[in-house]
Amino acid sequence: MENILHFVIGIFGNAFALFLFLAPLITFKRIIKKRSTEEFSGIPYVMTMLNCLLSAWYGMPFVSPNNLLVSTINGTGAAIESVYVLIFLIFASKKEKGKILGLLTLILSVFAVVAFVSLFALHGKHRKLFCGIAATVFSIVMYGSPLTIIRLVIKTKSVEFMPFFLSLFVFLCGTSWFVFGLLGKDPFVAVSLCIFLSIFKYVM
Predict the structure, then answer these.
(1) pTM tops 0.85, yes or no
(2) CB 37 within 8 A of CB 96
(3) Range 158-173 burial, b when 16+ CB lie within 10 A, else e
(4) Rounded Cα–Cα distance for residues 9 and 26 (Å)
(5) Considering the chain, what is the average pLDDT of its residues?
(6) Which residues, other chains included, contact 186 with Cβ-Cβ below 8 Å and sequence gap of 6+?
(7) Which of 56, 82, 121, 195 has the fewest CB atoms lying closer than 10 Å?
(8) Is the model's pLDDT at 174 over the cut of 60?
(9) CA 47 to CA 22: how far, in whole Å?
């Protein structure tokens, strides 16, 4: 029964995660239409891409057994986020483009190092521990990355550049995976949401 519930919660987590990944479509439709990124930040999309890559890697059977649902949705998410980042780079200003390209280079380097070290230098529980810590750290960064525009929201007294649905589905997605992690007794899947909720509560 517990295994069935674990699987069902994982399906819900996949659904909410897919909505999370698709939530920015409205934003990017506006960017394409206006041919400008305006005051939107590209940082959350780059950090989400890294989180997806690391989480997909962590969910692979040779790293973490029984977490295939984590791997499939995050692999999908990485592909979707890469499209967002590409669109952002096309329409961003020269200064913003340079910043996002630098960040993109950094996150791809981080993923390459994590994958290489875990694949060739670590085995068994040590591999899972290393990949789990990396995925958890950058999950926290992903959940906190929308906070980079809080200052703009306060300054303009408008939430125009902090899309509501993006924030909503980050919350729903994180909550689902928190429960999934608890049921599966996997602290690496569950712990990042605890810290995110603390950040969310503090900001709000």
Answers:
(1) no
(2) yes
(3) eeeebbeebeebbbbb
(4) 27
(5) 79
(6) 64, 67, 132, 180
(7) 121
(8) yes
(9) 16
Instruction: Report whether pLDDT(187) > 50.
Output: yes
Contact 131, 57 (CB under 8 A): yes
Instruction: Retrieve residue 93's tokens.
Output: 């200003």
Half-sphere exposure (Cβ direction) of 73: Cα atoms closer than 13 Å: 19
| CA–CA–CA angle 12, 18, 22 (5° rounding) | 145
Q: What is the predicted pLDDT for the residue at 124?
A: 83
